[in-house]
Every structure is written in structure tokens, then in C-alpha cells.
């Protein structure tokens, strides 16, 4: 009997370790908070616009920088960011390749994601509006991505026959190994395909998050919230129309161009507010906007453009956004649930200068405020 159990145990272990390592094929969604720091850190890379590597020149850099600047500068920047931040997850929020200038979509993606793959850090990607403009369709691009090494990207959720787009999925981040939260998702990550362009002739402009995707989000969020009320973060490419609700007085960062959302509002922001778990949304698309502003308890954030073959502003550094989620420490010194969610950006200058640090959410500002009795005056 003991021998039988041992064999079963060994089989189970080898099976589970295989699932953990072959993350893509509908396998694990298992990410975990770091035990040492009680933290989970995400690096967002928006709009790499990768094309043909060393043959592809940079856009919008200073005249003196033009001669020695290519896609390879984008790769160097990712490597430096990975070294500096040592993230637990790297998220690429679309326009990962600039298909229009990429001779071969596969070669371009291989080069674009190479630094992430070489680091061995799990990574996830969604599509922008330019990824399908080379030799592969949107479907083909996402299919290719989910087969790449170390990615947790998924094609689409199982059990949902009809869903718009490619690359709608969620990832769970479990509590620290050995803690009371080790088997619970205490941070939920949602990834959506915000589309490319409208296919409705009477509606011009960019795509939007469709009802089928919102339904999937609602169902997923509800199911997750049933087992534990974890905060969530959402990543996609095209900003929601609500990004236009801010000005200098109520955001952190800059707005140097218009908000290029869809020309219609498909209601995803309202859906997020209704579900209540998502505390912040992270997009790209508008390369020279990099702000974060809060509306109805949800932060709407840009990462700012990352890639050198993407339009930008000469003299205004390419940049990336980092999110650090910290756990609270229990009275016995063990790690608990999420305490706070912070963000900052780093510029691609000599020192990778960190700017615009801010708190996006904290358990005590949201949870306990409501419980306190209203003081009588
Ligand atoms: C791009 O990389 C080259 C080679 O390392 C470097 O000399 C140049 O300064 C970089 N350009 C920018 C804009 O960072
Ligand atoms: C988590 O699951 C493992 C394996 O099923 C079990 O051994 C452990 O006791 C569980 N821990 C908690 C805190 O639920
Ligand atoms: C930001 O401030 C402007 C006024 O300066 C106001 O019109 C807008 O509604 C504010 N936005 C939010 C989300 O509070």
C-alpha cells in the first residue's frame, strides 16, 4: 500500500512539475508571490513595434541619435529593465510587432520576445492593432505566441464557444508557498484583446472590447471572487473612452496626445466597476501619454511607449511601467493577502530613472475606511 502511494505520489509530482514547466498548452495558471519579499512585480512593455531588428531604424529620436539606433535598442532596453527590476511577470500590451514593416511575423516575434524568453521569467502578451499586418493573421499571431517558450499567454478561454478576439485569458497569482494563502489566488490578472479596427462600416476607428469578452470577464471574476475577494488588474492595448476623463489636476504623468480609444463606448469600464475586483487597468497604444488617473475607484493607466521603431517624441525617453503588489504580514510573521498595489515608470536613460511613483490601491484605504463609524459633530 505504502509503495503504491509512493508511486502515485511520484507520478503526481512529475505530472505537476511538467504542467508547471509547460505553461502554455492550457496548463498552469499558477503564479506565486515571492516568499522573501512578500511581493509580486509586473513589468509592462507597451508598443515595442518590433520589425526587422538591426535593419529597422528608430523613429522620433534626436538627429544625433538616428545613425546608431534600430530595433536592437528596444531589445537592449528590455534587458536593462529585466536586470533592474527582476520582475515576476512581463506583460506585453500589444503592438509587440509593427507588422507593416516586419518582413516575417514569426522572425519579428522571435526577436521581439527573445529577451523575455532568455530571462526565463514568465511572460504574457495581448495583441494591439498592428500585430497582424505582416505575414500572419491575428489568429495566427496569437496561436504562435501561445506556443513560445516561458509564456503564460493563452489563445482563448476554454468553455466559451463564442468569444471575440484572440488572447482573452486570466492568470491567478497564489499566496506565498507554505502560507495560509498558498492555495488561493490573491491577485487576479485579466488579459483581453481590445481588437484592431472597427469592422462595422458605420462606426469608424479602432476596435473595442465586445459583449462576449465582457461576459467572459464577468463570469471569471464572479467565480474567482466566490473563493476569495482578491484585487485584480486588467491588461489590454487600446485605452477605454474613460481615459479622456482626466486632466493635469487629477492624473500622475503626462498627456501629450489625444486618447485614441474606439469611437463608441462598449461599456467595459462599467462592467469593471460592477464586478468590483479590478483596481487598475493598463494599456498602451498612445505612446506619448503615460499617465494614471483614478475614476470611481479604478485607476486607468498608460505605460508610455517602449519601442524605438514606434512613434514617440524626440528627447522624451522611451519608458516602461512597473507594478509591485505587496502582501501584509500576519502577527506570526507569515505572509497574508494583498496589502497594497504600487506603480512607477522607468525611463530609458543612463540610470533608468524611476519616476511618478504612486499607490494604486491599498487594503486599508479602501476596506477599513467604510467600516469606521461616521464621527458626530
Ligand atoms: C542605440 O544603441 C546604440 C548601440 O548600443 C547606442 O550607441 C545608441 O546610443 C542607442 N540609441 C538610443 C537612442 O538609445
Ligand atoms: C494547500 O494544498 C496542499 C496540497 O493539496 C496541501 O498540502 C496544503 O495543506 C494546502 N494548504 C493550505 C493552507 O490550504
Ligand atoms: C478631473 O478634473 C477636471 C477639472 O479640472 C474634471 O472636469 C474631471 O471630471 C476630473 N476627473 C476626474 C476623474 O475626477
Brief rundown of the structure:
It contains seven helices and 14 strands. It is of the alpha/beta class. The longest helix is centred in the N-terminal third of the chain and has 20 residues.
Explain this structure.
Its cofactor is Zn(2+). One of its GO terms (cellular component) is extracellular region. This is Metallophosphoesterase domain-containing protein. Pfam families: Metallophos. The chain has one domain: Purple Acid Phosphatase, chain A, domain 2, CATH 3.60.21. It is α/β, with parallel strands linked by helices. The chain is built from seven helices and 14 strands. 25% of the residues lie in helices and 23% in strands. Bound molecules: 2-acetamido-2-deoxy-beta-D-glucopyranose (3 copies). One 2-acetamido-2-deoxy-beta-D-glucopyranose binds next to loops.
CATH fold group: Purple Acid Phosphatase, chain A, domain 2
- How do the helices and strands follow one another from N- to C-terminus? HEEHEHEHEEHEEHEEEEEEH
Quaternary structure of the protein: single chain
- What gyration radius follows from the Cα positions, in whole Å? 21 Å
Q: Any idea how many domains?
A: 1
Adjacency order of strands in the biggest sheet: 1-5-6-7-9-11-10-8
Keywords: Glycoprotein, Iron, Metal-binding, Secreted, Signal, Zinc
Subcellular location: Secreted
Signal peptide: 1-21
Domain Calcineurin-like phosphoesterase: 40-288
Amino acid at each position: 500500500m505504502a509503495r503504491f502511494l509512493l508511486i502515485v505520489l511520484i507520478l503526481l509530482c512529475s505530472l505537476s512539475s511538467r504542467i508547471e514547466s509547460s505553461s502554455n498548452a492550457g496548463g498552469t495558471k499558477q503564479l506565486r508571490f515571492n516568499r522573501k519579499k512578500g511581493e509580486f512585480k509586473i513589468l509592462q512593455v507597451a508598443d515595442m513595434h518590433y520589425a526587422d531588428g538591426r535593419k529597422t531604424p528608430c523613429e522620433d529620436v534626436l538627429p544625433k541619435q538616428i545613425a546608431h539606433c534600430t530595433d536592437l535598442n528596444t531589445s537592449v532596453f528590455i534587458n536593462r529593465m529585466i536586470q533592474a527590476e527582476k520582475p515576476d511577470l512581463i506583460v506585453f500590451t500589444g503592438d509587440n510587432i509593427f507588422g507593416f514593416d516586419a518582413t516575417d511575423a514569426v522572425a519579428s516575434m522571435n526577436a521581439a520576445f527573445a529577451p523575455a524568453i532568455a530571462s526565463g521569467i514568465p511572460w504574457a502578451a495581448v495583441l494591439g492593432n498592428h500585430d497582424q499586418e505582416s505575414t500572419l493573421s491575428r489568429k495566427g499571431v496569437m496561436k504562435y505566441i501561445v506556443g513560445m517558450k516561458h509564456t503564460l499567454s493563452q489563445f482563448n478561454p476554454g468553455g466559451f464557444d463564442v468569444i471575440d478576439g484572440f488572447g482573452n485569458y486570466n492568470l491567478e497569482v497564489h499566496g506565498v508557498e507554505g502560507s495560509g494563502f498558498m492555495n488561493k489566488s490573491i491577485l487576479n490578472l485579466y488579459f483581453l484583446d481590445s481588437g484592431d479596427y472597427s469592422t462595422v462600416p458605420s462606426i469608424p476607428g479602432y476596435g473595442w472590447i465586445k459583449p462576449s469578452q465582457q461576459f467572459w470577464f464577468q463570469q471569471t471574476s464572479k467565480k474567482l471572487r466566490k473563493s476569495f475577494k482578491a484585487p485584480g488588474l486588467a491588461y489590454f492595448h487600446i485605452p477605454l473612452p474613460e481615459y479622456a476623463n482626466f486632466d493635469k489636476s487629477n492624473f500622475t504623468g503626462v498627456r501629450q496626445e489625444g486618447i485614441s480609444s474606439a469611437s463608441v463606448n462598449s461599456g467595459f469600464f462599467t462592467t469593471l466597476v460592477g464586478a468590483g475586483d479590478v483596481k487598475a487597468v493598463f494599456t498602451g497604444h498612445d505612446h506619448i501619454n503615460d499617465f494614471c488617473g483614478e475614476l470611481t475607484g479604478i485607476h486607468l493607466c498608460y505605460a508610455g511607449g517602449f519601442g524605438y521603431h514606434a512613434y514617440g517624441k524626440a528627447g522624451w525617453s522611451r519608458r516602461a511601467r512597473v507594478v509591485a503588489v505587496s502582501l501584509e504580514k500576519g502577527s506570526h510573521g507569515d505572509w497574508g493577502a494583498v496589502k497594497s498595489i504600487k506603480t512607477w515608470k522607468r525611463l530609458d536613460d543612463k540610470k533608468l530613472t524611476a519616476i511618478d511613483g504612486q499607490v494604486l490601491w491599498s487594503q486599508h484605504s479602501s476596506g477599513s475606511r467604510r467600516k469606521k463609524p461616521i464621527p458626530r459633530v
